[in-house]
Write a structure and sequence with these properties.
The protein contains 6 helices and 2 strands, in the order H-E-E-H-H-H-H-H. With 179 residues, it is mainly alpha-helical. The chain folds into 2 domains: 73 residues; 94 residues, no CATH class. Strand 1 and strand 2 form a beta hairpin. It starts with a helix and ends in a 6-residue tail after the last helix.
Length: 179
């Protein structure tokens, strides 16, 4: 009988140790899981701070780009009520061949500008400049790119100078825009 009793005691103790081991194992997993979750929350907060900092830096860079572009463009535009080309700007559109190309594509450019739907003269001017910035790879402007490369000029600046021609032409065919 003592054999049975020692066998039962061994079984109970063995099962108890197995249960305790299982509980400790499960508890260890929970602690590890909670630690990982806490680390992820901390990492998420740190990442959000970095994202916020990057957004601020990008905003500053965009503002700097705007001011730099205005400074660069001051060479080709006269700051008057309604921008006008300087002598440098006029020379750029003439020597680069923009004027000739413009005569052939001006109606297509007007259609592109009409899709943007400018409402005021200022809108036309600014949207024409933005449109021209986006047309660097416009096939008819390939000769302008070749000119820019050959003479070390900025094709974007040539096109922005050309935007004044587009603005003036657009206004000539849309006299209803008075503001």
């Amino acid at each position: 009988m003592t054999e049975y009793l020692s066998w039962i005691i061994s079984l109970v103790v063995g099962e108890g140790l197995a249960i305790i081991s299982g509980i400790l194992f499960w508890f260890g997993k929970q602690v590890k899981y909670n630690t990982i979750v806490d680390e992820l929350k901390t990492n998420k907060d740190e990442l959000q701070k970095k994202i916020d900092t990057l957004r601020t830096d990008v905003d500053k860079l965009q503002e700097f780009k705007t001011y730099a572009q205005k400074f660069i463009d001051s060479v080709i535009y006269k700051a008057k009520s309604q921008l006008q080309l300087t002598e440098v700007g006029k020379a750029l559109v003439q020597e680069s061949g923009f004027e000739e190309i413009f005569e052939n594509v001006k109606n297509d450019l007007v259609k592109m500008l009409e899709k943007i739907n400018p409402k005021t003269k200022y809108d036309i001017q600014e949207k024409a400049r933005a449109l021209m910035d986006d047309l660097v790879d416009y096939p008819p402007f390939v000769p302008i790119k070749e000119y820019a490369f050959k003479f070390g000029k900025d094709v974007g600046q040539i096109l922005r100078a050309g935007a004044i021609l587009l603005r003036d032409y657009y206004l000539s065919i849309h006299p209803e825009i008075e503001k």
